[in-house]
Protein 1
Amino acid sequence: PWDAGRFAMVGAIQDAARNHGRVLCARDERGGCASCADVDEDGSAGLGGGASGTRGALVAVKEMPTTWACGSPEAFSFAHPGEVERPWVDIGCLELLREAEFPYACRLIGVFSGEKR
């Protein structure tokens, strides 16, 4: 489940009109993200490259309605057969890159669901 106390929203990065969502910038108050940028005292992203467990790191949050994403890759494919954006494939690719320790991809912290999204 979505932990509203963990992520403090900083601002919007971009609308994601295709999936009725948006990409937000948030501060991870708990930390634990090994590849997120450090955050300087003024709240801007630092250049340190991110330290494991950095509390206050800035992260990107992709928010989309659960009704659009569906409950599984199979359900999504059935509901949106012609859709070029495939959120479950994106999640799987990020996890595969993390497992391969590929250093040039966003690190997937998790997949969370809330009341509406």
Protein 2
Amino acid sequence: HKNSWRARLEWIGISVLVLTLAWTLTLFVNNLGMMSVVLGFLAILTSILLPIVLYIVMCKKRATLKSIPKLECLLMIVIVLSALAVLIANMIKMGVELEEYHGRKIRNVTITELDNMFQCSDFNFKPYDF
């Protein structure tokens, strides 16, 4: 963790790579109409599974893992299993939706939106027509 130009350039490279991958992923996900499924995955991962996993990792690092009450452990297990069940159900849903699109030609949503934005053949501009 040195404050050098190399470290800064590495972070810039990593950040640009992550942003580029996220942008590309949203184009493909939006193109297939599966944005809600992907956002559901991310919501479950970041708001349910990640905090539980980080809590367990930190308890393990501090050697306090055995001091967690059994009821709390049971509740965490139930929450994790429920979240995994929802993730599996979403995977099945995504597979069914992809199967429906199989073989169909899908037009890129981004290109369609750009075409609609710049399509001006029906534009009748009258400057004083309010």
Protein 3
Amino acid sequence: VTYAIEAGAATAQRAALFPAVFWAASSLTRIGAVPVARYVSTGHLLIGGISGAIVCSALFALLQSWAPMLWIISISLGFFSAPLSPAILTVPSYLHPGQELTGQEASVALIGVALGE
């Protein structure tokens, strides 16, 4: 928000909408990812999400003062980051096949994810 205002890419009122657009895209994607996750592996979801976030970050670095790009990046980052939080809970089962994730381990993972967001 602050960056968009200081760069002159958006007014304070418009810049305040960037987080809302990000979270709306993230929420809608998480809802849509549920049926998709039945057909796409967790590994592919993680790779796609991380790759998409990297591309968005690179585009932001290159086109940061162009106002339409800020909107596109806000939506895209919400889209690509959405499946990362739930998918991270499945990583222990890949590292230790047959071992179930305990409630304490899930709590630690979710706290880590929340701190990262």
